[in-house]
């Protein structure tokens, strides 16, 4: 394993890049020569009321279904249908215990859905891809969706389309961004900006094929984009949350973050560019806010845009001490927590992080010499997040061998998602995403179960002189490669290891001690699987392992 790890410099993206990301565009070089052609089966029986159901996620990106559904809804809202806000649809479905069933792809009767949702038609969707796809000589960013509109009265399909777009590295759509560049700055990862751009382009093209009912009086106002400076930040008292929306000119615009901020007006600074701002007050507190923009015509007809940049965190954080010297519990009720520099757990101390807790790291990270227990659950995962404008170092285990466990947590935007030196750790149900290195083990022992390691700038999982078990997990979209092993005894089975950069698995030993049978490597042809070094991968699974991807 290379010891001198080259790390990229930090990146901060101004609003112009964000507009590229979310699709403020009327044309784009997306590598598609022909526009998508849908199946329109019942254009003469178009509904009036339409509910967009939770999309099924067929990708390894835990955010894919949510992002693509919101983006689809945002473009769909400018058609001449009466659409239901997705949060209201979700609330109704959860009351009937249907949300998870639909999101898992179960067949729920459209007639039954129409009755209790009060809608004429529903739109089902399956997100097929969202993110980077690696080929032998190139990589591109793609987004794919299968969607259909179904009549609740008859069960007949009104409109149906499966479509995938490919955006080559460096492709930038034509945008309208110059007017807003000086208004808002934001900091989101380049990876996230890229797949949001892909989602926007995909949904814009697909919605354009949906038959639009003849308007009765006027069409709803058209919104093209909404951005803000609250993504990947903790907004504290005195900070200003700025919002910019682009849409039809000369109308009334506003925005809200329920239940904290309600219907704040926006000013039209230039034709079609609306700007709003809010100064955070000392009493404001909202761990996971959802921002929505509105554009209203003179006759009261309204369109809205649901933010896709991520939750907005508002409020005075609970600042953690620099050193944990005894058993300490962190609970969701006092979240968000903030680590100003480094958080050190001493050798005889224990840090317990309870379900639903959120910890922000401003610069350094978490160093564990004692014991760490992250006790998230599928319903209430723990989040350890770096402020993107000032990347953090990640979680470091230093000669820690007692009871370390990470259950259902997300670790993102770090130099190392997790780095363990002469330590033992159990990882279950976790997401390591958008880190430079996903997980790195050195002379230690680890088990990784039911977890997802994706979109690392370097390698997803690296281990040197360690003992390793990886099972029921997915390792994908990591730029350099999936798994890198040296002098390591490893058992790797029933995982999805595919769509990584230069290799799926690489073993640096002359004689490897790696058992890697019964995995999905992206295909059945062993000659096409990117394997380097002495590793036995047969038998190869014929299809991907059906693993549950949590939405963190």
Structure, described:
A hairpin with a 5-residue loop joins strand 6 and strand 7 (157-168). The longest helix is centred in the middle third of the chain and has 18 residues, at 190-207. This protein starts with 14 loop residues before the first helix and ends in a 20-residue tail after the last strand. With 552 residues, the chain is mainly beta. The protein contains six helices and 45 strands. Residues 1-33 and 170-187 have low confidence and may be disordered. The chain is globular, with a radius of gyration of 24 Å. A ten-stranded parallel β-sheet has the order 19-22-25-28-31-34-37-40-43-45, with no helix packed on it. It has a nine-stranded parallel β-sheet with strand order 18-21-24-27-30-33-36-39-42, with no helix packed on it. Strands 20-23-26-29-32-35-38-41-44 form a nine-stranded parallel β-sheet, with no helix packed on it. Helix 2 crosses helix 6 (190-207). It is 11% helix and 40% strand. The chain has four domains: 1-214, Rossmann fold (3-Layer(aba) Sandwich), CATH 3.40.50.10610; 215-315, Immunoglobulin-like; 317-435, no CATH class; 439-552, no CATH class.
Entry summary:
11% of the residues lie in helices and 40% in strands.
């Amino acid at each position: 394993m290379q010891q001198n790890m080259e790390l990229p410099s930090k990146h901060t993206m101004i609003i112009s890049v964000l507009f590229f990301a979310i699709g403020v565009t009327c044309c784009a070089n997306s590598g598609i020569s022909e526009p998508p052609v849908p199946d329109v089966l019942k254009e003469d029986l178009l509904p009036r009321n339409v509910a967009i159901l939770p999309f099924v996620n067929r990708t390894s990106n835990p955010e894919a279904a949510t992002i693509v559904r919101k983006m689809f809804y945002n473009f769909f809202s400018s058609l001449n249908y009466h659409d239901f806000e997705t949060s209201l649809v979700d609330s109704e479905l959860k009351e009937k215990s249907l949300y998870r069933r639909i999101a898992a792809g179960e067949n729920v009767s459209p007639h039954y859905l129409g009755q209790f949702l009060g809608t004429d038609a529903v739109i089902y969707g399956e997100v097929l891809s969202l993110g980077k796809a690696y080929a032998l000589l190139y990589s591109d960013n793609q987004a794919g969706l299968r969607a259909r509109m179904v009549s609740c009265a008859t069960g007949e399909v009104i409109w149906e389309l499966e479509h995938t777009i490919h955006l080559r590295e460096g492709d930038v759509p034509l945008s309208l961004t110059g007017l807003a560049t000086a208004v808002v700055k934001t900091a989101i990862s380049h990876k996230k900006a890229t797949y949001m751009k892909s989602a926007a382009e995909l949904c814009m093209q697909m919605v354009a094929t949906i038959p639009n009912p003849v308007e009765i009086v006027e069409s709803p106002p058209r919104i093209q984009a909404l951005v803000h400076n609250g993504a990947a930040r903790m907004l504290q008292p005195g900070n200003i949350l700025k919002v910019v929306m682009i849409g039809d000119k000369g109308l009334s615009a506003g925005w809200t973050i329920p239940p904290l901020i309600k219907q704040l007006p926006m000013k039209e600074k230039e034709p079609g560019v609306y700007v709003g701002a809010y100064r955070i007050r000392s009493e404001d507190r909202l761990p996971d806010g959802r921002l929505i923009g509105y554009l209203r015509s003179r006759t009261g007809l309204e369109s809205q845009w649901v933010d896709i940049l991520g939750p907005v965190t508002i409020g005075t954080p609970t600042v953690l001490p620099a050193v944990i010297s005894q058993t300490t519990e962190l609970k969701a009720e006092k979240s968000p927590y903030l680590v100003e520099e480094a958080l050190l757990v001493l050798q005889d101390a224990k840090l317990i992080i309870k379900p639903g807790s959120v910890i922000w790291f401003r610069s350094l990270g978490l160093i564990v010499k004692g014991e760490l227990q992250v006790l998230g659950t599928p319903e209430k995962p723990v989040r350890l997040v770096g402020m993107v404008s000032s990347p953090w170092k990640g979680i470091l285990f230093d000669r820690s061998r007692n009871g370390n466990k990470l259950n259902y947590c997300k670790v993102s935007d770090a130099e190392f998602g997790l780095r363990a030196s002469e330590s033992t750790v159990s990882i279950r149900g976790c997401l390591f995403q958008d880190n430079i290195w996903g997980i790195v083990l050195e002379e230690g022992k680890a088990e990784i179960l039911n977890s997802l390691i994706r979109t690392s700038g370097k390698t997803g999982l690296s281990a040197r002189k360690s003992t390793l078990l990886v099972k029921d997990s997915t390792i994908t979209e990591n730029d350099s490669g999936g798994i890198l092993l040296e002098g390591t005894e490893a058992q790797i089975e029933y995982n999805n290891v595919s769509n990584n950069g230069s290799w799926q698995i690489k073993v640096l030993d002359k004689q490897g001690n790696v058992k890697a049978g019964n995995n999905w490597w992206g295909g059945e042809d062993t000659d096409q699987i990117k394997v380097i070094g002495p590793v036995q991968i047969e038998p190869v699974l014929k299809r991907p392992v059906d693993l549950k991807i949590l939405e963190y």
